[in-house]
Design a protein that fits this description.
99 residues; mainly alpha; 91% helix
Length: 99
């Protein structure tokens, strides 16, 4: 039992003059009600957030696809620029050597 339950148990036993069995039964009934309320609240939250998380997963997948395509485009531009600059340098060397 937690301290709150012990305090409630002592209160029921002393102030309301309930027997130990009745006080314990009352505390267990309150605890069961709390668990039921918490369980139903958790189910509601799960159903509410399930759709939100699904939408979030879809957006993350879309962003990953965009990042992948951006990386491919960046690599293409880098290779194109590298090849162009290499040809320009070779052309300059050829110009200088053939003079």
């Amino acid at each position: 039992m937690s301290t709150v339950e012990l305090t409630l148990y002592n209160l029921l036993k002393t102030d309301f003059h309930l027997s130990e069995d009745k006080a314990l039964e009352f505390i267990k009934a309150i605890e069961k009600t709390q668990e039921d309320n918490l369980g139903s609240s958790m189910r509601e939250f799960k159903s509410i957030f399930k759709d939100d998380f699904h939408k979030l997963d879809l957006k993350i997948e879309q962003l990953n696809a965009k990042i992948e395509s951006t990386n491919n485009n960046t690599l293409k531009w880098f290779m194109g620029g590298f090849i162009t600059i290499t040809l320009m340098v070779l052309g300059l060397f050829a110009t200088i050597l053939l003079k």
